[in-house]
Every structure is written in C-alpha cells, then in structure tokens.
Amino acid sequence: MLSGVRSAARRKLFRADPADLLGVANWPEAGVAGHHQQQHWWAALEHNFVLESTDDEYGGVVVDADRLPADKAAFARSLAASLSYWKSVGKKGVWLKLPVDRAEFVPLAVKEGFKYHHAEESYLMMTYWIPDEPNMLPANASHQVGVGGFVINDQMEVLVVQEKYCGSSLDGVWKLPTGFILASEEIYTGASREVKEETGVDTEFVDVVAFRHAHNVAFQKSDLFFICMLRPVSSEIKIDETEIQAAKWMPLEEFVKQPFIQEDHMFQKIMDICIQCLRKCYCGLTPHHVVSRFDDRTSTLYYNVAEPEDVNCSAT
C-alpha cells in the first residue's frame, strides 16, 4: 500500500512543470547546456540529491553538516547537482562544513572547485563562490588575541614568572604572566584567568592600559596583545608546573631594571605607562556592556571614563 502511494506521488511530481517544482523563473532554453542543466535538476528531484542547507543573509547557502550523505559516491552526486541548482536560482556563496568523520569528502569538494576557509579540531570549512564576479565571502579570521597581566600589590611588588618553555631571548627573564584569550572569552576575564592558571593568584580587573598590534606573528596571522592592570586579592603563589618554571613577587624597581625591559623599547614603554597609571597620571580603558540595535546582543565596549579624583599627576 505504502509503495503504491509513493509511486503515485512520484508520477504526480514528474508530471508537474520543472520550473514550478524548483522555484526557477526561467527554465533553460533548449540546447546542449540547457539539456545538461535540466538533467542535473531532474536528478536532484528524483533522488533527493540537493544537499540540505539554509539560506544566509547575503544570498548564499550554508550546508547542513549533520545531514550529509553517508558515502563518497552519494556526496559527489549531491554536490554536483546542488551546485547546478544553486546557480540556477541565483545563489552566491556556499559554506560547506565537513566534520572530521567526513574527511574523505574533502578531495571531492576540491575537485568541484571548493576552497579551504578555516579548520578547527572537529571540522574543515570550505567555500565556493558561484557568480562570475568578485568573491565577496569574508576571509578567515586574521588575528589571535593575547593578554598580559600587570599585577602589583600594596608593597609595590609585581607578580612575575619565568616560563619553562621559551626562546633563548627570554631565558632566565622575569616577565608578566601572559596567554591567549579563549573563544567567546572577555579580555578582562582572560587576563585574570591566565594569571590564576600560571601563578595561583586571584585578581580583580582594573583596566586595559595599552595594547600592541603586530603582524606575521604566527602562521602569517596578526596579533593583538592587551596589557591589563589587575589588583591582587590573594598573595600565595602556586605555579602551573606544566608551563611555568618559577613565579614570585618582585619589587617594581628591580623588575623594570632588567636588561630585558631596558633594552626593549616596547616593553619599556609599557612599563612607563603602567607606572603612570600607578601615579594617577594616566587612565586606562574599562569595560562597559552595551547593546547594539544591529544584532540585539550585549557587547563589551572599552573606553575611558576619568573622574577628577582618578587623575592627579602631582601624586608620587
């Protein structure tokens, strides 16, 4: 009974006008090219070859990574038919996310003209630009974001570390705790987290005193590095022995006199700014949560709001 219903539905489907079924305003005219294109569309309808996808905001499609075909042959057929269909309906960019358990599909996508976009531990993202015009798809992320914590106590001692694994230029150097921001992590949260992980010291965020922008740092990516002033709320040190050789509280004067600081213009400038903050001659950037009408999401905007009591350059 069920098979009879399916057969009747199939006959009804293929008596319908192809343009109505596919939502295509202009069914291709007769000719070799039009004939081949029609073949792709019929195959997509008859065998459900068009890949499951959703439309994005820019006239493109995002393929559903959870509903990809199970084998290479089916994927190859679906991908070719899907590209023909998407082209016929005027789609632009195609985003194809291939999970690691579908890695065998990558050569098939490359053969169709897909390009690598970015990769994570569990997937590879590939893209395809359909129109015969400049590719408007956004490039892969261009930056990594790092933080450094300037933690100073009431005795004017700075929390410093010696890294276990470092280049020869940092061998034996006492430096600020540093690290990278995690995905979806705030700068102020990441700074305190890195200090806690490396030294065991709990801190409160005060402000961003400066940031550095550098290029071609890691695999040709650019780097943003934020120096954050933090207030210690504990003092006991317990190092992370997997990456830290030693940590201690060092007098500020001793710290800045290290050749590593004195002979490096950037670090010397960073320390000058931090000292001016301590003297209340300089105010850094503090985080403020705001909502934008463009996406109705809460973001963090860093800016300077200095009250008269916050700035007193005559202080020593």
TrEMBL record:
<dbReference type="GO" id="GO:0047631">
    <property type="term" value="F:ADP-ribose diphosphatase activity"/>
</dbReference>
<protein>
    <recommendedName>
        <fullName>Nudix hydrolase domain-containing protein</fullName>
    </recommendedName>
</protein>
<dbReference type="InterPro" id="IPR015797">
    <property type="entry name" value="NUDIX_hydrolase-like_dom_sf"/>
</dbReference>
<dbReference type="GO" id="GO:0051287">
    <property type="term" value="F:NAD binding"/>
</dbReference>
<comment type="similarity">
    <text>Belongs to the Nudix hydrolase family.</text>
</comment>
<dbReference type="InterPro" id="IPR040618">
    <property type="entry name" value="Pre-Nudix"/>
</dbReference>
<dbReference type="Pfam" id="PF00293">
    <property type="entry name" value="NUDIX"/>
</dbReference>
<feature type="domain" description="Nudix hydrolase">
    <location>
        <begin position="142"/>
        <end position="272"/>
    </location>
</feature>
<dbReference type="InterPro" id="IPR003293">
    <property type="entry name" value="Nudix_hydrolase6-like"/>
</dbReference>
<dbReference type="InterPro" id="IPR020084">
    <property type="entry name" value="NUDIX_hydrolase_CS"/>
</dbReference>
<keyword id="KW-0479">Metal-binding</keyword>
<dbReference type="GO" id="GO:0035529">
    <property type="term" value="F:NADH pyrophosphatase activity"/>
</dbReference>
<keyword id="KW-0378">Hydrolase</keyword>
<dbReference type="GO" id="GO:0046872">
    <property type="term" value="F:metal ion binding"/>
</dbReference>
<dbReference type="Pfam" id="PF18290">
    <property type="entry name" value="Nudix_hydro"/>
</dbReference>
<dbReference type="InterPro" id="IPR000086">
    <property type="entry name" value="NUDIX_hydrolase_dom"/>
</dbReference>
